[in-house]
Write a structure and sequence with these properties.
Elements: H1 5-23, H2 32-47, H3 55-86
Helix pairs in contact: 1-3, 2-3
Length: about 90
């Protein structure tokens, strides 16, 4: 099944965020906003035909967006695990 470059980047970014969670401290959750905005801006400008990006650029913005969403997901997991431990 083929993947678009941005979706492939997002999947790789999610995986990298998971590896980061288990090996090092996560970046602050609010840094995830920057990566998501970068991916959204790339998509929006390309959708409005104001900007053309190659597949490499789509892969890079997908990585940024996927890693950013992964940061949010793992911060949420960390929060709920902390709640369970306080019970």
């Amino acid at each position: 099944m083929p993947f678009c470059a941005r979706c492939l980047g997002a999947a790789i970014g999610h995986t990298l965020a998971a590896l980061n969670f288990f090996t090092a401290p996560l970046p602050p959750w609010y840094l995830g906003i920057a990566g998501c905005m970068l991916m959204y801006a790339d998509w929006y400008l390309q959708n409005k035909k104001l900007w053309y990006h190659s597949n490499i650029m789509r892969l890079i913005t997908g990585l940024a967006g996927g890693y950013s969403v992964g940061i949010w997901i793992w911060h949420i997991v960390q929060y709920f695990v902390g709640l369970i431990h306080t019970l």
